[in-house]
Amino acid sequence: MPSTLSGASAGIESIRTLAFVGPSASGKTTLAEALLHRSGVVGTPGSIERGTTVSDHDPLERRMQHSLNASVMHLTHADTRLHFIDTPGGADFLGQSLPALEAVETAAVVINAATGIEPMAQRMMDYAAMRRMDRLVVVNRIDVPGVDLAALLTQIQAAFGKECLPLNLPADGGARVVDCFYNRAGDSDFGSVDAAHRALVEQVVEVDSEFVDRYLNDGDVDPSELHKPLEQALREGHLIPVCFVSARTGAGVAELLDVIVKLLPNPTESNPPEFLKGEGAEAQPMQPEVDPGKHVLAHVFKVTVDPYVGKMGILRVHQGTVQQNQLLYVGDGRKPFKVTHLYLLQGKEHVEVARALPGDIVAVPKVDELHFDAVLHDAAEDDHIHLKPLDFPVPVHGLAIGPKRHGDEQRMWEILGKLVDEDPCLKVEHVAATNETIVYGLGDLHLRTLLERLREVYKFEVTTRPPRIAYRETVTANAEGHHRHKKQTGGAGQFGEVFLKIEPLERGAGFEFVDQVKGGVIPTQFLPAVEKGVREVLTTGAVAGYPVVDVRVIVYDGKHHSVDSKEIAFVTAGRKAFMAAIREARPIVLEPIVHIEIAAPDSAMGDITGDLAAKRGLVTGTANGAAGSVVIRGQVPMSELTAYQSRLNAMTSGQGRYTISLSHYDPVPPNVQQLLVSQHEVKEDD
Fold it and tell me: Which molecular-function annotations from GO does this UniProt entry contain (predicted)?
């Protein structure tokens, strides 16, 4: 029988949710394993090296020995149900880590004491602040010899703000931790606990004038009375607690569980998620009620698609109660689906439950209509409710992909569609200009992981190559072309003769075909054939194999034969006359120029602008970004951006990101045109 989430843990006040976020190798997965072990969920902690952890259950994760997906787990401690999400730490996998923040009250940013504050820690802290989340800093690996934890705490306060204050402190060289919120006395590796205790209490009471007066009069306040101002301080970002832990030795793990249960917010105490009702400019903010008796509002923050099990939506309940056998709608869908099963997740394991309250994170399997970011509801008036969209980085790292076996194109698109369903930072499109299927991701590792999934999960083999640059050809002068097509093979012959002129048009004007034939020298029924021949050149190119644009073609004369003139003859004559004219019209190759916007630390600004100049780019403006960062805007040829993210990573220590959009087309330099022309083999009919 399914669990009913009964007992003390059934109340909303007895639910806690948090996501472990931060850089790779900070120990998030090991910390999750330590919490599961401490609470009795697993008898022996799993190992990343042995591939036995609960969260890294995907075969690829076990082989690569780092997280690639957000993994949901749960435990019970002190009659409190804790839902927590282990997220990947690589910048290439933000499509997994950012949505996890939508499902929880607290973002727990994990820092490796041995490596200090890394870019992903700052990035996730900034995202959590933008979403008005409660934040917690967890300093892991405090047992590493020689680490200066006091200096690291100073760095944390410099990077994230003076609001970062320790709830506990390491003691005995990191072998244990000592509480400094409830505890007023004792010593730590940082010295006396009293100073840390007073700093905490003073920070909390500042949000409540009544407690300020009491603190000034009495010299202290009983921490057990500070629950309400503590939650207010967390909501307002006035306090960002810091906890010390060693997931490997277990130091601080029990204390971290107590902090989560006693001090972190339940679903009624955090800032509400930013829901909108309506579409576009008409959308109005609305706030769900954390009430199990109201209409259901639940948000799908993750989708998994298993080739054997099918699609599963993982959702956070924000309002109402989701129950088995209930009918729910997906967004503005007209047809409801039935909740046949409802699961709590423990990594890859599914624990069936009968219902889920506001705050619970559960999964619904085998519902094809589910998709990432869907809002599930049970009332018609809630059709147009959605969460404020996350600000995902735009995938611009492209790879041309095709099936290894001819005829498998449709199956490839179906599989890619499933992979895109699972990751909002993957994009697939067919580029008509180059006739290529391009998959876009956030970086090389992101795309290599996608290819591994194609091979290992779906047993599908593909070929890959860098995407072709969508060059164009055009002309810069007026010219004329002529061709007589005459073919005699013993029977009926072929005859058609075409005279035409071409003129350049403005950039972006496209193509014009003008009929100025007089006297019926080319019969009307053959003019479409002439145009067809001209359009063949538009597609295949005349000098370098790229589409021809921004040209006007004027057909003004020709000849026909009453017996031998056929459509094929005028197609050939039109094509070859057009080719002849282009070669006399000073043809040039055009390259795409893109707008580029780069966000990076301001210390890297000089390197980035110099590098853009070396890539034939032009900086058009700069602006201040978030603290210590700059936004650089410019224009640069698309051909110069191959593997640019890797280059940007090198200049910014992995902190830079960029987006691009097409601006216009410009002529390529003469040496580039010579190379492109020399690489193209013109194949003409006899």
Answer: translation elongation factor activity
> Could you tell me the two tokens for 188?
């730590």
Residue 5: pLDDT band (50, 70, 90) is very low
Q: DSSP of 622-659, one letter per residue?
A: EEE-STTEEEEEEEEEGGGGTTHHHHHHHHHTT--EEE
Contacts of 471 (CB under 8 A, 6+ apart): 544, 546, 589, 590, 591, 592, 668, 676
Sign of CA dihedral 7, 10, 12, 18: positive
CA distance 123 to 601: 12
What is the C-alpha separation between 142 and 432, in angstroms, rounded?
Answer: 55
Question: 361-382 pLDDT, tens per residue?
Answer: 999 999 889 999 999 999 888 8
Percentage of the residues of the chain whose pLDDT score is greater than 90:
66
* Residue 129: HSE in the Cβ half-sphere, 13 Å Cα cutoff: 16
Q: Token pair 């705050």 is at which residue?
A: 359
Q: What DSSP character marks residue 548?
A: B
- The amino acid present at 258, given as its one-letter code, is D
Q: What is the DSSP string of 297-360?
A: EEEEEEEEEETTTEEEEEEEEEES-EETT-EEEETT-SS-EE----EEEETTEEEEBSEE-TT-
Tokens of 193: 């606990």
What predicted TM-score, i.e. pTM, was given to this entire model?
0.79
Vertex 561: Cα angle to 555 and 566 (nearest 5): 75
Task: Please say whether the beta carbons of 163 and 238 come within 8 A.
Answer: yes
Please report the sign of the dihedral spanned by the C-alpha atoms of residue 28, residue 30, residue 36, residue 42.
positive
- pLDDT bin (cut points 50, 70, 90) of residue 383 is confident
CB atoms near residue 49 (< 10 Å): 9
Instruction: Give the C-alpha distances (Å, rounded to integers) separating 293 from 296, 320, 321, 357.
Output: 9, 5, 7, 9
Assigned token pair, 653: 């220590």
CA dist., res. 157 & res. 152, Å (int): 9
Q: Rounded to whole angstroms, how far apart are CA atoms 616 and 679? A: 22
3-state secondary structure of 218: helix
Report whether 142 contacts 252 (CB < 8 A). Answer: yes
Nearest to 206 by CA among 244, 173, 252, 239: 239
State the amino acid at position 638 in one-letter form: M
Q: Using DSSP, state whether 180 is helix, strand or coil.
A: coil
CA–CA separation, 94 and 74 (whole Å):
22
Dihedral angle sign, alpha carbons of residues 16, 373, 305, 394: negative
Q: Which residue, among 592, 593, 591, 595, has the nearest Cα to 634 in the 3D structure?
A: 595
Residue 73 structure tokens? 């787990």
Specify which residues 590 forms β-bridges with.
Answer: 472, 667
Residue with the two structure tokens 């036995």: 52
DSSP strand pairing (327-330 vs 375-377): antiparallel
Residue count of the chain: 686
**240 DSSP β-pair partners:** 164
Cβ–Cβ under 8 Å, residues 658 and 594: no
Do 298 and 316 contact (CB within 8 A), yes or no? yes
CA-CA distance, 675 to 544, in Å (whole number)? 9
Q: Are 220 and 201 in contact (CB under 8 A)?
A: yes
Per-residue model confidence as pLDDT tens digits over 422-450: 999 999 988 776 788 999 888 888 999 99
